[in-house]
Write a structure and sequence with these properties.
Length: 275
């Protein structure tokens, strides 16, 4: 029997030792997929633990292949990074997310993942400026999620870019914090607004005391640096409670909402009045 979804297909290939072939297929399909308009953006809410309100949405790209179905980002983003296609896809996601921000409550920010390759592109800043101009998003509503790895490629350049983004009023969150470099000296050089606690720490929060210690330390570090903390991958009430107790301000995870297409409220138009 034929496997239905891409997930099965991918597992099948891994079992057959045909990973390379699957990679090659993705690589050859990416460009067509982009031009065909296969990519969509889903949004996952970010909750403020104090107010209990949604304060932002993270934009997460999805590849809807007409025959293969949904291909998860872990399967194509790394390949798109290798081939450089991520620069095109990433710019499109940025543009789409900034345009979609107009359909979100005005107090909500939109967080966009920036890959290392995209961050290192020569014209990255002008790309961001262009998108802001074209979409009219207020810069303070835009947040860029950048990993430590991206910032460490070229520290001097990264510091300059981060400074300029801050000057433009755009905030930056350090994504997957604690999973990249153990060298924390970059925190001194870099301008950013948030540390995003990686879900690997959140997952082990209930069972592993060390995980709790790491989370408390990150929160303490954030406070000392004057930045905010957000935790990702929150799946249980207990995790949310522990994070709140540790002083974490914002949370994101299946407990509060899975990534989903933007819910656009239909505009209500009054029917013409009978006279
Ligand atoms: P990430 O930036 O760390 O995003 C968080 C991932 O965790 C997302 O996976 C999200 O759907 C998932 N997640 C959210 N809440 C929960 C939860 O409660 N439990 C669990 N187990 N998972 C949760 P997703 O959407 O599959 O994306 C995976 C990765 O792909 C992202 O990790 C990011 O590194 C990359 N990615 C996604 N969209 C983009 C994009 O537009 N541009 C770039 N450059 N990378 C992207
Ligand atoms: Ca992210
Ligand atoms: Ca993350
Ligand atoms: Ca991650």
């Amino acid at each position: 029997a034929r496997a239905g979804g891409i997930g099965n297909w991918s597992v099948f290939h891994q079992q057959m030792g045909l990973v390379a072939e699957y990679r090659q297929w993705i690589e050859s399909e990416l460009h067509t997929a982009f031009e065909r308009g296969d990519f969509v953006v889903h949004y996952q809410p970010q909750y403020d633990l104090l107010s209990g309100k949604v304060v932002g949405y993270e934009a997460l790209v999805r590849w809807r292949h007409p025959e293969r179905g949904m291909i998860p980002p872990q399967e194509f983003v790394p390949i798109a990074e290798e081939t450089g296609m991520i620069a095109l896809i990433g710019e499109w996601v940025l543009r789409k997310a900034c345009a979609d921000a107009h359909l979100m409550p005005p107090e909500c920010s939109v967080a966009v993942n920036i890959s290392t390759v995209q961050f290192m592109t020569k014209d990255f800043l002008s790309q961001v400026r262009g998108v802001i101009k074209a979409t009219g998003i207020e810069p303070h509503r835009l947040e860029l999620e950048v990993t430590e790895t991206a910032m460490m490629q070229d520290r001097e350049r990264a510091a300059t870019i981060l400074e300029e983004l801050a000057r433009m009023g755009i905030s930056v969150a350090v994504d997957d914090f604690g999973t990249g470099y153990s060298n924390l000296s970059y925190l001194i050089d870099f301008t950013f607004k948030k540390l995003k606690i990686d879900q690997s720490f959140v997952r082990r929060l209930e069972t592993d005391a060390n995980s709790g210690a790491v989370v408390s330390t990150i929160v303490g570090l954030s406070r000392a640096l004057g930045v905010r903390t957000i935790a990702e991958g929150v799946e249980t009430e207990n995790q949310a409670t522990l994070l709140k107790a540790a002083g974490c301000e914002v949370v994101q995870g299946y407990l509060f909402g899975k990534p989903a297409p933007l819910q656009v409220r239909e505009t209500h138009v009054e029917p013409p009045r009978r006279v």
